[in-house]
Input
Amino acid sequence: IAILLTGTLMMVSCGSDDGTTIDPSGILEGGLGVLVDANITSNTTWSNDSIYVLASRVTVESGATLTIEPGCIVKGRAGTGANATALLIARGAKLMAEGTAANPIIFTAEADQITLGQIQSPNLTADLNGLWGGLLVLGNARISADNDAEQIEGIPATDINGLYGGTDDADNSGVIRYVSVRHGGANIGEGNEINGITLGGVGSGTTIEYVEVVGNQDDGIEWFGGSVNVSNAVVVGAGDDAIDTDQAWSGTLNNFIVINPGDEAFELDGPEGTFVGSGHTITNGSVKADGAAGLIDFDATTDATLSNIFFFDLTIGQDVEEYTAFAAQTGFGATSIEAVLPTVDADGNAATYTVADFFTDMGTNATAVTTATVGADASVFADWTFASVTGELSDF
Output
């Protein structure tokens, strides 16, 4: 590796950092930037004394482990189509991204002027998206689709590292803890953007907790089958859906916050193939609906159980879709849904609304309240998240 110190280019051997080189122009003022421009094929560590810049779609290939130290910053260069930058963890590979509350790991765009030791960007806000790709983790757990293995959305079909799904529900893709993913969602084709965090066939041996997605052009977090559990998650300003589930995901999302999604707070789809599975659980969440197009989009195959979810800051016209078709299924349902209802109409005039105006056909499963008795514990997001340091959590 070449290191630029006080104007002198020095050669230093660091070992096991396949595909990484120093960018002589530097990223940090007076410091170092590491340009990553090739797939990772052997065990590699990204240290917390440099900023790593993805110059392309970078894959951690099967058999390799990428370890990212607490406090590390990873930036993706701008690009669309086949040139969209992203970090892809292929089936059989592992990502060990174990940040801490004091030193979270941040994925963001190269345009972000954030530097080591900072949480808040000095120049980018939550409404800026599509500036790079995102984080994709693929595993060998079961999915419900046309085939046991499928190509993940957002990755060109020519890249076989984009395959996900298999037969090992206990598959382990590593640890993702105290990680914030920001300003992603680059478009690789019409209607084919990359999610902030994509989980394709990820197994229950994987640990994902304390994660944040900010300002992603497509969905915040999307599950495609698999059995991984996720806890303590916050999604701010997703351009599409905040929480999206597909292909018979069988894990749990516990303790989460959604803020101002562009489309639905939840888009919940079920099996697409013959494999049915046990369904997934979404519980203990708080949703600030704000400008969202809708609240929950069910369908006739949605295999989810929802409970203890609090909605507020609702806008006239937001609703729940296809609840009746969803509720007709055996073994799934939505209970303990609470909401603070608007007190004025679209013109600002005083008005009275009922839960049925928003939570269509849900009956007593949705209740109007003035103070929440269910929802997320927001304290776990304090200080380390973009949402916290920019005041987005002040209402929670």
In short: The radius of gyration is 21 Å.
